[in-house]
Q: What sequence folds into this?
């Protein structure tokens, strides 16, 4: 009898131990997963930020005529000698539909399309929000869409804001989390302003 | 059971330790990524700072031909290096900003441009009224275009805005035109006198000349003459006798020069003057006297402004004092080194 | 006894692992906050450096001597010049038909007042701004403008010079902290340089 009680007690205690270990392991897994998604998301955000800065700060470089062709809250078309090779590129940025990224688990994300003379690429940064606003030399917002040459010539600054989310959620026992990051910046392409600042 | 439990826990500890290491490594990667972006932003700011400071150094050394700014600098915990290439009036200035292990390159193309220069409308352009012109002896005013020596008539000029001969006198109204016309028979030009109210107000340019003057003479009294600039190195000279015409600056010796001469107040060149370039008389009460033996000669242009203009030209020689318009002499004055600056033509980053 | 030992070992392991997990998540959030703070600081820095160098030059007047520039003690918007000082903490918000919200929900944007009121670099001296981020909340931004020595721009100058240093500091409780737990603000510095002729 006593031996039976010993066995039952030790099994109970062992069971509690195993359950505890399993719980801790579950937490580790969740954190590892969330951490991985966070790294991917922040890496995507940083890459997109640097790409946008690299492109937008060159708007109008060596362009003698109209520098910005079209601008609205999700699209921008401009001309620039991007590579500094005396070759004027026609660059277009626009967002595509969420249906174009059906491969991810995130129903809200959409690709960003970047078109230059070298070709068109659809980039998956995990964007769920992407907005552009434009200001003139007195920092006043310019109503969109901006289509005429004279209106495009007023653009001196571009306010870029976006939000990037992970392609997959982290499902825990209590909720579903999406790793995300927001970014916003006001850019002043030199070739739209005086070249002195 | 106890042993099994220990083994299970130790096994779990090993696995958890391994996973924790991975998590820590991943976090380090994340940190590096964000720090990298921070370094990139700092490097960009440094590069921009380097461009601005280099341009400022160039501005501070206008008299040094082919001046190149310092090749490096530091600011806010980072450094920048500059490299320059020059070809004629074009300079390529590249600045590389470095912060921690990140660098950012900015490339600029600069073009040497000329600061604004007053528009000369005649051999003597007067932006004042009424005027009092005194010309005696063989003194003459000639608006026809001469070469920079003032010896030969010239039909051409390196200034692309050259439009040909100018009037002898450009004045503000018909009364002044008649005063000038009747001052002497030795007035030549196309035409001899003309009403032209577009003569530049020299006050817009005087600050530039006084701040960049190579020589400033502002002590009333008698001065010997001197040489103020050469054909190869024209200079900016300011002679400031002040607003009180009781005080005068009088040059008893020969006054020779090239470039720009700015005059304010009561100034007499009794020892003769031989100046090639632009003379601007800018004060409120101006009495300028080019009276001497010999042949005082001004080749280029004379602009007189103020409340009233009193100009005396006198020469006892066979030729007499002479003011001759010369687009070439004005062009050389306009392009003296202190009146040039590097403007940014392109900025690539 | 061994089971007890196993429990003790497990407890220690769990504590250690939880500490790692917590610090990892903290670092992740701090990095996100740092990225946002940096972008906010750079945006304001670019806004400031595009402005005129000095109040005297806003009307196209050229300055030939640093003695003609604004005294450091007089930095800030000049009421005498018709400028409107921003004595409050500047913040952008959306007007949603009578209510104000910090985020966009189809309302009318009321942008930062500095863009409308300020027209030269030293107007921003002492300027304070609150910037809202959808995930992180409000970030506090402060600006200091100082004259600096032209040959050693890391040193401030009591005299007026052709160079002003712009320091933008962004603070938020989610930013990285030092070992003592003090928030490490994101600080950007840059120079505004005066040139009479640029282009």
A:
């Amino acid at each position: 009898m006593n031996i039976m009680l010993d066995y039952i007690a030790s099994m109970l205690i062992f069971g509690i131990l195993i359950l505890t270990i399993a719980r801790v392991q579950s937490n580790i897994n969740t954190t590892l997963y969330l951490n991985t998604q966070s790294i991917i998301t922040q890496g995507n955000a940083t890459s997109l930020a640097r790409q946008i800065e690299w492109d937008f700060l060159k708007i109008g470089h060596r362009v003698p005529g109209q520098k910005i062709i079209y601008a609205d809250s999700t699209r921008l078309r401009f001309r620039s000698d991007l590579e500094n090779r005396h070759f004027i590129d026609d660059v277009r940025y626009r967002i595509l539909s969420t249906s174009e990224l059906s491969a991810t688990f995130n129903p809200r994300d959409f690709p960003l399309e970047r078109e230059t003379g070298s070709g068109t690429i659809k980039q998956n940064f995990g964007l769920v929000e992407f907005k552009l606003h434009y200001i003139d030399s007195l920092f006043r917002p310019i109503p969109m869409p901006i289509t005429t040459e004279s209106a495009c010539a007023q653009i001196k600054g571009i306010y870029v804001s976006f939000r990037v989310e992970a392609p997959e959620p982290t499902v825990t026992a209590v909720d579903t989390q999406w790793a995300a990051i927001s970014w916003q910046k006001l850019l002043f392409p030199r070739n739209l302003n005086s070249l002195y600042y | 059971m106890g042993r099994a439990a220990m083994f299970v826990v130790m096994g779990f500890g090993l696995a958890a330790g391994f996973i924790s290491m991975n998590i820590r490594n991943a976090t380090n990667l994340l940190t590096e990524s964000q720090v990298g972006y921070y370094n990139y932003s700092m490097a960009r700011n440094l590069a921009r700072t380097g461009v601005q400071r280099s341009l400022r150094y160039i501005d501070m050394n206008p008299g040094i031909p082919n001046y190149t700014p310092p090749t490096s600098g530091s600011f806010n915990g980072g450094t920048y290096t500059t490299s320059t290439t020059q070809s004629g009036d074009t300079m390529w200035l590249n600045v590389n900003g470095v912060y921690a292990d990140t660098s950012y390159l900015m490339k600029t193309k600069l073009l040497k441009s000329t600061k604004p220069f007053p528009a000369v409308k005649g051999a003597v352009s007067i932006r004042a009224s009424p005027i009092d012109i005194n010309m005696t002896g063989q003194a003459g005013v000639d608006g026809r275009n001469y070469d920079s020596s003032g010896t030969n008539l010239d039909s051409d000029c390196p200034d692309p805005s050259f439009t040909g001969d100018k009037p002898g006198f450009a004045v503000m109204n018909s009364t002044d035109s008649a005063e000038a016309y009747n001052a002497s028979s030795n007035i030549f030009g196309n035409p001899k006198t003309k009403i032209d109210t577009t003569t530049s107000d020299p006050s817009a340019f005087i600050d530039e000349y006084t701040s960049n003057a190579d020589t400033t003479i502002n002590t009333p009294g008698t001065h010997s003459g001197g040489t103020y600039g050469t054909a190869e190195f024209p200079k900016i000279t300011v002679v400031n006798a002040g607003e009180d015409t009781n005080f005068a600056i009088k040059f008893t010796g020969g006054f020779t020069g090239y470039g720009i001469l700015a005059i304010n107040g009561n100034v007499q060149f009794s020892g003769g003057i031989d100046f090639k370039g632009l003379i601007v008389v800018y004060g409120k009460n101006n009495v300028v006297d080019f009276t001497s033996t010999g042949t005082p000669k001004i080749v280029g242009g004379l602009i007189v402004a103020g409340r009233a203009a009193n100009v005396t030209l006198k020469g006892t020689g066979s030729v007499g004092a002479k003011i001759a318009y010369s687009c070439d002499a004005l062009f050389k004055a306009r392009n003296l080194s202190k009146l040039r600056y590097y403007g940014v033509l392109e900025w690539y980053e | 006894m061994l089971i007890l030992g196993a429990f003790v070992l497990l407890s220690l392991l769990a504590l250690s692992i939880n500490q790692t997990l917590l610090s990892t998540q903290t670092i992740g959030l701090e990095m996100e906050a740092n990225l946002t703070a940096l972008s906010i600081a750079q945006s304001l820095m670019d806004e400031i450096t595009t402005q005129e160098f000095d109040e005297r030059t806003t009307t196209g007047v050229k300055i030939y001597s640093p003695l003609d520039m604004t005294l450091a003690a007089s930095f800030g918007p000049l009421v005498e010049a018709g400028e409107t000082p921003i004595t409050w903490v500047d913040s952008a918000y959306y007007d949603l038909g009578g209510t104000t919200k910090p985020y966009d929900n189809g309302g009318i944007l009321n942008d930062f007042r500095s863009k409308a009121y300020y027209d030269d670099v030293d107007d921003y001296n002492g300027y304070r701004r609150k910037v809202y981020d959808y995930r992180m909340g409000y970030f506090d931004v402060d600006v200091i403008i100082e004259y600096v020595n032209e040959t050693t721009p890391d040193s401030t100058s009591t005299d007026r010079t052709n160079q002003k240093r712009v320091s933008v500091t962004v603070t938020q409780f989610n930013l990285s902290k030092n070992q003592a737990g003090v928030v490490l603000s994101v600080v950007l510095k840059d120079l505004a340089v005066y040139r009479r002729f640029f282009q």
Observations:
- DSSP finds four helices and 23 strands in chain B.
